[in-house]
Amino acid sequence: MYLHIHCFVFFNFRMEAPGEKTHTCGTICLKYLLFLFNILFWLAGGAVLAVGVWTLVVKSDYISLLNSSFYSASAYILIAAGVVVIVTGIIGCCATLKEMKSLLIVYLSLLLCIFLLELIAGVLAFITYQELDEELRQNLKVTMQQKYQQPGEESVTQAVDKLQQEFKCCGSHNYSDWTDSVWIQTNDQLVPDSCCKTPTDLCGLRDHPSNIYRVEGGCIVKLEEFLLSQLYILGAVGIGIAFLQLVGMMFTCCLYRNLEEDPY
């Protein structure tokens, strides 16, 4: 009984001072919860920004192997989304601390817009991945055969070598894809040196299983797995931020209603 009375008094207690706004403790608690949410939202924006930069900088070598701009575009979208989330979080903090109802409406609208854009982006990403996967299967072999070690195609050569070494594979579908390579036909090697388990100069003269990688499905399977893992990362980040946004919209609506009801 005592605890019930104590809680009732606590949540309905009003701190009054001449010339100051008076709020119930419920409104004050909402303000701090929304402020805490904005801190988390701001950190989430930083995480999205970091993932976008990491995707663009660390894994950008493979962009030259894709005719589609999906990979680089997704990285730029992540960077832009991170900046928007950070700015939205700052607006939310200002609206919460200064109790500006008009700014709260702007903040709520931004949260809703970002949430809807995330849903649209998720659907488009899934559809685009299916198209990218088919395009990858059709074009990777031709790209490796016609552009590897050719003048002006240094980025492709670097990407192919990194792909074969990092994923421990050789050729698009298997090592025999290199037989029709423009570069191989003008050299004595059977495969590039990057196909070797222990890369050394001219190690590609031998295509014995003890010397080169013979992964089932070749590099195409490995690259597909990599792109799919990137999609999972984007999806996980998006779901996490979407959940935060739903919580933030709920807190914002409650705070706005309480500010409307609280006497000044």
Task: Give the SSE order as H and E letters.
Answer: HHHHHHH
Specify the biggest β-sheet. none
Number of strands: 0
Which regions are unreliable across 5 or more consecutive residues at pLDDT < 50?
1-21
The radius of gyration is 28 Å
Structural class: mainly alpha
Cα distance, first to last residue? 32 Å
Number of helices: 7
Helicity range: 55-70%
- Which band does the percent of strand residues land in? under 5%
**Total count of domains:** 1
What's the average pLDDT?
76
Label the overall shape.
rod-shaped
InterPro entries: Tetraspanin/Peripherin (IPR018499), Tetraspanin_animals (IPR000301), Tetraspanin_EC2_sf (IPR008952)
Subcellular location: Cell membrane; Membrane
Transmembrane segments: 32-55, 75-97, 104-129, 231-256
Family: Belongs to the tetraspanin (TM4SF) family.
